[in-house]
Specification:
The protein is mainly alpha-helical and 111 residues long. Helix content is 52%, strand content 4%. The chain is elongated, with a radius of gyration of 42 Å. Residues 78-100 have a biased composition (Low complexity). Keywords: Signal.
Amino acid sequence: MKFRHSLALALPLALALAACGRSDNASEEAQPDTVEIPANEALQTTTETPVADPSANATENPDTAGEDVAEQQKAQEAGDNAAQTAAMAADAMAASSPTAKPTADGQKTTD
């Protein structure tokens, strides 16, 4: 008997819940007035065509071009110095190794 009562109450509750989803109230239709003008209305009276700005994409300042070259040269010199230091360290390690053997290209290898 309790099962029948729950089914009898479920149907009206489902219908009541579905009725709550209606949008027949005036609060949805009442929208506040805005003071902003939509963009397409504001631009309808414009007759000028847009022009490209040639300086818009300028990325390099001619005054700093010399500084960039100087920085690149310093970086290149530092890299060369590091390579020379690594070569000298490799030679020193090879010379201190007791089983070092010279190869065809002058490098020493260890067994």
